[in-house]
Amino acid sequence: MEELIQQLFNGVFLGSIYALLALGYTMVYGIIGLINFAHGDVYMIGAFIGFFLITNLHLNFWVTLILTMGMCALVGMLIEFLAYRPLRHHGAPKITSLITAIGVSFLLENGMSFLFGGDSRSFPQAIKLVNFKIGFIHITNIQLLILIVSIALMVLLQFVVQKTKMGRAMRAVSVDQEAANIVGIKVDQTISFTFAIGSALAGAAGVLIGLYYNSLDPLMGMAPGIKSFIAAVFGGIGSIPGAAIGGWLIGLIETLTFTLGISSWKDAVVYAVLIVVLLVRPNGIFGKKAGEKV
Amino acid sequence: MSFFEVNNLNVSYGAIKAVKGISFQVNQGEIVSLIGANGAGKTTTLHTISGLLHPNEGTIQFAGQDITKSSPSQIVTNGISQVPEGRHVFSGLSVMENLQMGAFLRHDHDSLQADYEKVFSHFPVLKERKNQDAATLSGGEQQMLAMGRALMAHPKLLLLDEPSMGLAPLFIKEIFEIIQQIQSEGTTILLIEQNARKALSIADRGYVLETGKITMTGRGRDLLNDSAIKKAYLGG
Asked: How far apart are CA A210 and CA B154, in angstroms?
C-alpha cells in the first residue's frame, strides 16, 4: 500500500512533464490540424539549451528556465516558418505536412547527434537535491519544483488562451480560419504564436526533466514525445485541459506498472489503455464530437 | 471616382475562371445588390474584395485607394468588413467574444462600448445571450451575430453574403429591415443574394451576375420589374 501511494506521487511528477509536452501537441493540432512529430525534439533541444546555459554560462535555474523557454519558442516559430508554413500556403494535403513533421524530427535528432555527439551527458545539478519525508512518502525538492512549475505554466497558459486578445485569436483561428481572416486576424502570426507557446512549454519540460533524470541525449525526445502525443489523444486532441489530464494519467499508469511489478511492460500497458479508451471514447476524454470541419 | 469601384476583375480557381472581367461601383450611402444563381461568381467576388482571394487581373478601389493587393486585415482596417455566407460564427466562443473578435483590429477602446450598445440595440437577442456559446444560437441569431461582429469593425462598407440563406421568413424580414437601418445610419452596403426579390426591393441599384459576367444593371425597382429578370430570378 505504501509502495502504491509512493508510486502515485511519482506518477504525478512524471505526468507533469508529459502534460507540459502534451499541451504543445494539442494546441498545434487544434489550430492547424497537424500532429507535430518534431515536438518531442523541441523538448530535447530545451534540455540541451538548459545544459549549455548552466554548464557554460553558469546561470541559475530560474534564469535558465526562462531563457530556454524563450529560445525554444523561437525554435518552434522557426520550424513552423520554414517547414509547415510554405506547405500550408500551397494548400498541400495534411499528410504532406505530417510527413514533413517526421522529417523535421529526424533532422533535429540527427542534427544534434552530428553537432554534439550521440552520447548521453549528465545534466548539471543547478539545484541542490533535498529529500523530504512526509509520513512514509519520499519526495524531493526537484519533484516539487516540477509539479509547481508545471501547474504555474498551465494556469498561465489557460489565462493566455481564455483572457487575452491573442488567446481569443488562437481560439478563433482554430474553430474557423476563414472567419478569422474575415475579421482581420493575422492567421499566420497567430499560428506562429501557437507554436511559440507550445515550444516554450516543451523547453520548460526539457529543463525540468534534465534536472530530474540528470541526463540528456539527442534521442531523449522520442519516447516522451510519443507518450505525450498519446496523452493528448487520451485527453481529446485539441482540448487543453484534456492534454493536462492525459499527461498525468499517462504518468500514473506508467509508474503503477512499477508497483505491479510489470515495469518492463510499462509502454505496452500505456498503449493498451489508450486502445481501450479510444474504443470507448473515440474522441478522448474531453474531445469534442465534431468530425472534420467542412 | 466612386466610393467603391471594381474594374475588370478576373478571378480563377486553378484553371477554372469564376469571375470574368466584371466591373461595378457602389456610391457612398447606397445599398447595391449583386444577384445571380448559385455558381455565378458572387461569393468569389466578395472574397476577392475581402482579400481572401487574389485576382488575376483587375483592380479594386475603395475611398480613393487601390486595395487590390491589400491583406485581409488591411482591408478590414480600411473600413470594409464582411458577413460571410453561412455566417461562420466562432463556435466555442461566447456571443460577446465573437463581437470582440469583430473589433480585433481596433485600438479606439473608448468608443468600443458605444458600438457594443449599438449592436445590441439592433439585435437585442444578442444582449440576452451575451455569455452563451455562439454554437447554441439558432440560425437567425447566428446571422445577427455575424452581422454584429462585422459592425464591430466599424465598417464604412459592409459586405453581406447571402444573409437570408436558410432562414425562416420572419427572420428574413427582420434581417432586411436591419440592413436598411444600418444603411440609414450611414454605412454603405454591398449585398449578395439569391433571394433576388428581397435584395432588389431594398437596393438602390442592382447588378445581375451570370457565370462570371455582369449581364444587366439598373435601379433596384427597375430590375424588379424587368421581364427577363422576373422570368429568371423571380419565378415568373
From this structure: 51
CB contact under 8 A, B52 and A182: yes
B34 DSSP assignment: E
Chain A residues touching residue B147 (CB < 8 angstroms): none
- Average pLDDT score over chain A: 91
- pLDDT tens string B30-50: 999 999 988 889 999 999 999
Q: How far does CA B31 lie from the centroid of its chain? A: 10
Mutate to test the interface with B, among A164, A182, A286 (most CBs of B within 10 A): A182
**Chain B residue whose CA is closest to A288:** B92
From chain A, pick out residues whose CB is under 8 angstroms from the CB of B149: 183
Averaged pLDDT for residues A169-190 = 95
Could B104 and A171 be called an inter-chain contact, meaning their C-beta atoms sit closer than 8 Å? no
Residue A157 forms part of a structural domain? yes
Residue A245, classed as helix, strand or coil, is helix
Residue A274 falls inside a structural domain: no
Cα-Cα-Cα-Cα dihedral sign, residues A88, A196, A25, A227: positive
Query: What cell was used for A229?
Result: 502525443
Q: Which residues, in sequence order, are CB contacts of B43 under 8 Å at separation 6+?
A: B85, B161, B162, B192
Residue A120 belongs to a domain? yes
ipTM exceeding cut-off 0.85 for this assembly: yes
**Is the pLDDT assigned to residue A289 strictly greater than 60?**
no
What is the value of pTM for the model shown? 0.90
The residue segments making up the domain with residue A124 are 15-221
Do A178 and B84 lie within an 8 Å CB cutoff?
A: yes
Over residues A26-43, the mean pLDDT reads 94
* Alpha-carbon gap: A181 to the closest alpha carbon of chain B (Å): 6
How sure is the predictor about A46, in pLDDT bands with cuts at 50, 70 and 90? very high
Residues of chain A with C-beta less than 8 angstroms from the C-beta of B101: 168-169, 172, 180, 183, 185
List the CATH code of the domain at B4-89+155-233. 3.40.50.300
With beta carbons under 8 A apart, name residues in chain B contacting A89. none
Name the residue among B81, B82, B101 with its Cβ closest to that of A172: B101
Q: Is residue A2 part of a domain?
A: no
CB contact under 8 A, B76 and A175: no
Q: Are B152 and B102 in contact (CB under 8 A)?
A: yes
φ and ψ of B189, to 5 deg: -130, 130
Find chain B residues with C-beta within 8 A of A184's C-beta: 72-73, 75-77, 81, 104-105, 153
Cβ neighbours of B105 in A, within 8 Å: 183-184
Is the Cβ of B90 closer than 8 Å to some Cβ of chain A? yes
| CB A149 within 8 Å of CB A204 | yes
DSSP of A15-56, one letter per residue? HHHHHHHHHHHHHHHHHH----TTHHHHHHHHHHHHHHHHHT
Write down the domain spans for chain B.
4-89+155-233
Looking at the structure of chain A, the number of domains it has is 1
Q: Which tens digits make up the pLDDT trace of A227-236?
A: 999 999 988 8
